[in-house]
Amino acid sequence: MGINRRNFLTGALVFSATGTRADDRLTYVEYPFVDYFSIKKRGLAQSTSPDIAAAMRIASSMPTDDHFTVMERLSQITETGSTGEVFNSRWRKIANPLIVLFFHQIGYKETQLPGDCTPWCAATVAWCLKQTGMSIPSNPASSQSYLQYGKQVDDPRPGDLCVFSGVNDTFAGHLGLYVSRVGDKIRVLGGNQTGASATNCGPGYRQSKICIAEIPINKDRSPSVGVHYLSAYVHPA
User: Fold this and answer.
1) Structural domain for 66, as ranges
2) Which of 69 and 97 is assigned the larger pLDDT?
3) Average pLDDT, whole number, for the chain?
4) Contact, 191 vs 67, CB < 8 A?
5) pTM for this predicted structure
6) How far is 199 from 182, CA to CA, in rounded Å?
């Protein structure tokens, strides 16, 4: 059962106060999807069968009532796989099968190998939406596709989508769920956020996870503030 939303939002304030800020960790771009699963370009070793079975069990245990609650539950996963890494984070040496499963279950089939080298913020949001029976865009792994999805709003509520676009790169972007705003930053709950250790996915990829992070709104689209700016708040369809 998911935690109480009021308690979760209170916890978000405490969590963010510890200094978890994501924008400087989101320096990779959303590569054209055709090369996302190329072994040569983004390759990792294939997930093991026990890890795949565990990922399927975890996915099937998620709630189906509310996409925000689903993302909460994903952020609370503590179970680890064969590598000793938690199932809600990118793994260092082999593909985390839970992340690969997100891509499979939102309609992408070319994920036999390294799904967690793919930028997976939008895929995680799409999986949470689909888990609760909601519609998703035709290209749900692209954060920018959510600019043509749902209804854009000026007064976001927890669970509305935060769509960030790249300051200097049209393929760059990020997507997560609105938690709250403090000053010129937004507290965002989502996947592929934060992380410090390098992976073997390639330059610009860091270990990342499903959690809350503070991301600047960056209304002036300044590279000195961050690599992204807030394009829109979107109430999901």
Assistant:
1) 5-235
2) 69
3) 80
4) no
5) 0.83
6) 32
Q: Which residue has the higher pLDDT, 122 or 5?
A: 122
Count the neighbouring beta carbons within 10 Å of the beta carbon of residue 225. 16
Q: Which residues contact 61 (CB under 8 A, 6 or more apart)?
A: none
Q: How many domains does the chain have?
A: 1
79-123-213-172 Cα dihedral, nearest 10 degrees = 140
Joined tokens for residue 217: 């709104």
| Residue with token string 């610009």 | 204
Place of tokens 């390639």: 202
Q: Where are the alpha helices (DSSP H) in the chain?
A: 5-17, 39-42, 49-60, 67-75, 97-105, 121-131
Q: With CA atoms as reference, report the closest residue to 81 among 100, 65, 67.
A: 100
Q: What is the pLDDT of residues 160-170, one digit of tens each?
A: 999 999 898 76
